[in-house]
Amino acid sequence: MDVILLERIEKLGQMGDVVAVRPGFARNYLLPQKKALRATKENKDLFETQRAQLEASNLELKKEADAISKKLDGLSITIVRQASDNNQLYGSVTVRNIAQSITDAGFTVDSKQVQMARPIKTVGMHEVIVRLHPEVSVSVTANVARSEEEAIAQAEGRTLDPDEQVEATQQESLVAVNDTAAEENVSEEEATETAAETEEKPAE
Q: What is the pTM of this model?
């Protein structure tokens, strides 16, 4: 299927290029994401009338992405996960987890912008590419560790000895338990206050 690209698509072409793509790729991605138009005569004419506007809009978005990339470049995010002694995670770190961690750090990023060949399944420092714009990408580091202490050690290029690791993991578990207990206590207090207010309220 021939389509007109409405933005630069890696390995396909630049804005305005007419390229041949697989029908499924066009129907499932390019067309619904408004990244391309079917290369009909009507759409070609429509694109030419809007080319200047599209190029100006793209330039503005690229400038914004460039500004964000300068702040985001070199960012390191810490993701704490349980893992086995051989550093295999019990589960995995996905693009959604990465996007959420970057957002928590103060940068709004969608999971679709995070480029990962596969989910992260091991403890360690992992480089992740974030595509802020078709022409602007930036690298961030995902510091995946069993505990905050291990994350700090990894960032400094060292490893915790087994005893330190056990202690750090136990502390993380204790913090999690305390946080859960605190949330439950708050819920109980709210429930008690609600019940008391109901009892005190006069019958209508």
A: 0.67
